[in-house]
Amino acid sequence: MKFNLKHKNHSVGQNCYHLVWKTKYSYPIFKSNAYRKLCEGALRQVALNYNFYIYELQVMPDHIHLFVDLPSTMPVSKALQLFKGISSRMLRRRYSYLRSYDSLWSPGKFFRSVGNVTADVINNYIKYSQGSWSLPDSKLPSYYHQKHLSAFV
């Protein structure tokens, strides 16, 4: 899986998150393949409309796992609001019995920022990038030789 850095006028970076949310009361709405496919289509439509890039999407019987790259100007809370709200509206429009529920999704959510380097790599990068760069290449830690850090050299 390739994770590309986004290049803007004055910035370079990526804004990837692992998002998880559940159905209200953990009700297994998506056991049916038809419901699962419609939910997946709704989430992909939201991503298309708002310039999100989905790396991975799994619709489980009672929850959603989504690995997504968001625009740098989009707060994760807003992205979750869009995914949950629009998908709920689309599912309720198609399946009228879902309208009898107060809400389709639980108010809870899980999110974690995700990148293609570990926290240790970032800690060491910051630790060793301060001060002099006079160390010979043979003395530099191995993570400096990784390809994905070359964009910052």
General description of the model:
By secondary structure, the protein is of the alpha+beta class. The chain folds into 2 domains: 7-114, Transposase IS200-like (Alpha-Beta Plaits, 2-Layer Sandwich), CATH 3.30.70; 119-152, no CATH class. Helices cover 31% and strands 20% of the residues. It has 3 helices and 6 strands; from the N terminus they run E-E-E-H-E-E-H-E-H. The protein has helices at 33-49, 76-94, 119-129, and strands at 6-7, 12-13, 16-22, 53-59, 63-69, 110-114. A 4-stranded antiparallel sheet has the order 4-5-3-6, with helices on one face. Strand 4 (53-59) and strand 5 form a beta hairpin. Helix 1 (33-49) crosses helix 2. The longest helix is centred in the middle third of the chain and has 19 residues, at 76-94. The protein starts with 5 loop residues before the first strand and ends in a 24-residue tail after the last helix. The model is unreliable at 147-153 (pLDDT under 50).
Which structural class should the secondary elements be placed in? alpha+beta
Main sheet, how many strands, which sense, barrel?
A: 4 strands, antiparallel
> Which residue ranges are poorly predicted, with pLDDT under 50 across at least 5 consecutive positions?
147-153
Which strand-content bin applies to the residues?
15-25%
Instruction: Count the DSSP helices.
Output: 3
CATH architecture field of the largest domain: 2-Layer Sandwich
Classify the fold: give the CATH topology of the largest domain. Alpha-Beta Plaits
Give the tally of β-strands: 6
Euclidean distance between termini CA atoms: 23 Å
On the 0 to 100 scale, the average pLDDT is: 81
Spell out the helices and strands N to C: EEEHEEHEH
CATH homologous superfamily grouping of the largest domain: Transposase IS200-like
Order of strands in the sheet with the most strands? 4-5-3-6
